[in-house]
Amino acid sequence: MTTPLVIEVQVEKIGQLFHTLDPMPFRDRDLDREAEDYIVSWARELPRKHPLRILVHMPASEAAGEQAGQLEQALHRYFAYRADTMTGELKELFRIGRYSLLIGIVVLGACLTLGHFLTGYFTAGDLGRYLNEGLIILGWVANWKPIEIFFYDWWPILRRRALFRRLAVAEVVLSSR
Question: How far is CA 169 from the centre of its chain?
Answer without folding.
Answer: 18
